[in-house]
Amino acid sequence: MGRPGSGPLFTRGGSFAIVVDMDPLLELAEQQHGLITLGQARSLGIGQQTVHRWASGPSWERLSDEVLRRRGSAPNRAQHVLAAVLDAGPGAFLSFASGAAWWRVPGPPLDPLGIVRVSRTSRPSGTGAEIHTVRSLPERWTTTLDAVPIVRPELLALHLFATEPYSRAERWVERLWAMRLLSGPSLGAMLCDFGARGRNGIASVRRYLDDRGPGYVPAATGIESRTMQILRQVGIVVERQVDLGGEESWTGRVDFLVVGLPIIVEVQSELHHAALVDRVADDARRARLEADGFTVVELWDTEVWSHPSVAVARVAAAVATHRSVRSITTSEL
To answer: Average pLDDT in the 218-227 region?
Structure first.
């Protein structure tokens, strides 16, 4: 037996019945915090008249002309944000101060919601969000975070510098960097794509990078300080934000390097990892580090905060292995 409201929906069309399979629509709503759009329903093969008929029924509630909420789904902040982005139409993404708040930067307000889109449609927001139209939004600079379409932190930095006072944008972008959501090289890559003269915010991003220079390392975040603290308690000392490789063979900057041993410790955010990671590039970077003789130990931020003994044990095991190998090698000399 299927879920309540799942399975075929029968509607009367002239003298015959039309069968509409609701399961794909319900599955999509489950992935979108209980929300769907009329456009998404039509793309699943449901005719416009049928969509409007069941949209007025007992199973769905209209949040705007375009967005419907599955009755029984719990209203929450993610649903509120996603409804506004979906209402803005295909190709719309959260950005500006709202985007910074959604990336969990302390300080920026979530509301009023700021949304960016390329579409030239003049349809106003049905949710009260502020809609900004831009020239382009390349796919590589957008992602999803908790099911909400959002610009990546690098493009967010450009939008912040374009719309906020410099000192405020600088503070928020600095926090994005300290949270390891962007870096100098990743901002430089964004400038290569958006660095045309006249684009708002470009000069401020360049000024921000020039003021810091190559090799800049922002102040430690809470998660970095906590990681160093729990490792130090068991006698493992690490350096933070270490560049590996030379100018011609730079591999990248790692979160931590165990002093005296080729052990790298990377701390991943469970919230942000899926939104940021390029799995191909991530795997290639790890392979380069391992080919250079490093052992890479990945920790999750939830482990560091809530289960520090688990995190420490993983690093300690790698340290013990390297020291054991070093002892054997020394004894053979």
So the answer is: 94
